[in-house]
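User: Hi! I have a protein structure encoded as tokens and I'd like to know what sequence might fold into it. I'm fairly new to this, so please keep things simple.
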């Protein structure tokens, strides 16, 4: 608790609202840097995080537990019509997670690094399509990788790790699985691990290492992807 208290003292002058700290070492905070985040966003975020904490899906609970005990601080920022909250490709709706230091993501991180998760309100609104699609879970994996110092230099590894847990979530809530990262490369790791009963083994990479198993072999042409 001493450590958490120390971090609270650093954060409070920056006008952040603390979301979940009671029993956790890590600090999850809402960033009000460019004006107050909407109270509704704040409320929905708290509810969304509580749902992950109490999820019936054990791997989602493991992700949450790792997030709140990671050494780094994770801050949430609502995406709004302020371009400063948008992803670099100019998409006002695409969630993204940024390291709080100013170094390029491609350098990876081997030391715990504070992170900011930028998400639209729809991602924390239970029962919305974006909630079911698992954007929050996806970004939490990136934030955990940063906050724990397990942030791989290779963005395809980072995205496959994030989509893996996102697909655990999607399967759990009955939403179609992701088969690629925006069409750029395949993200079939969950499907492959699931067929082999290896979900826990893959999850261990996310909780303890910064790499990930080799991508599964490509699906032969003519066979549906899933
Ligand atoms: Zn991602």
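Assistant: Happy to help. Inverse folding works backwards from shape to sequence: for each of the 226 positions I chose a residue that suits the local structure. Here it is:
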């Amino acid at each position: 608790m001493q450590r958490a208290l120390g971090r609270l003292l650093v954060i409070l002058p920056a006008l952040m609202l603390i979301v979940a700290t009671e029993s956790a070492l890590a600090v999850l905070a809402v960033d009000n840097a460019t004006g107050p985040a909407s109270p509704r966003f704040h409320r929905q975020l708290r509810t969304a995080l509580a749902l992950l904490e109490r999820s019936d899906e054990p791997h989602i609970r493991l992700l949450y537990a790792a997030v709140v005990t990671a050494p780094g601080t994770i801050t949430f920022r609502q995406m709004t019509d302020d371009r400063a909250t948008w992803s670099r490709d100019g998409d006002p709706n695409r969630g993204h997670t940024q390291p709080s230091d100013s170094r390029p993501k491609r350098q990876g991180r081997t030391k715990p690094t504070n992170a900011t998760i930028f998400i639209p309100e729809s991602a924390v609104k239970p029962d919305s399509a974006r909630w079911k699609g698992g954007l929050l879970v996806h970004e939490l994996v990136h934030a955990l990788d940063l906050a724990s110092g397990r942030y791989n230099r290779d963005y395809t590894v980072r995205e496959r790790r994030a989509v893996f847990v996102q697909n655990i979530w999607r399967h759990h809530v009955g939403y179609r699985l992701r088969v690629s990262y925006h069409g750029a490369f395949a993200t079939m790791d969950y499907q492959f691990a699931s067929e082999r009963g290896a979900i826990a083994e893959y999850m261990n990479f996310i909780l303890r290492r910064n790499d990930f198993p080799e991508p599964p072999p490509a699906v032969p042409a003519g066979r549906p992807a899933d």
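A useful reference point when you look it over: The two ends are 46 Å apart (CA to CA). Feel free to ask if any position seems puzzling.
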